[in-house]
Here is the input.
Amino acid sequence: ETPEAGGERMIISSGTFFFEEVCGIMSKIPGLEGRVSKVPDGWTKPSPDSLYSVDTSHAEKVLGMKFMGLEESITDTVKSLMKLEKKLGVEAGSVETDSRLAKRAKVPAQ
Here is the structure.
């Protein structure tokens, strides 16, 4: 908790990103070959004026936050999930239900 925040509510967002950007980042991660979705045919990026914009400078200043970039965030998340797959003995690319994975990880299923 930060006293300077004084009970304020703040929107925390590092910006807008698109499916194609996430796929592009994931396609560069070793071990994901053949496992990354493709951008659907005919998909086009929305025009910039149709996107929301959030000014997070107040939250950054009051909370002392520095946002992680999209590439670092996606890469760290994917690598963490790949480690979990390995730990649980899940074959890369296999499909298991959430409840089976949760049971193997000893966490309650949602």
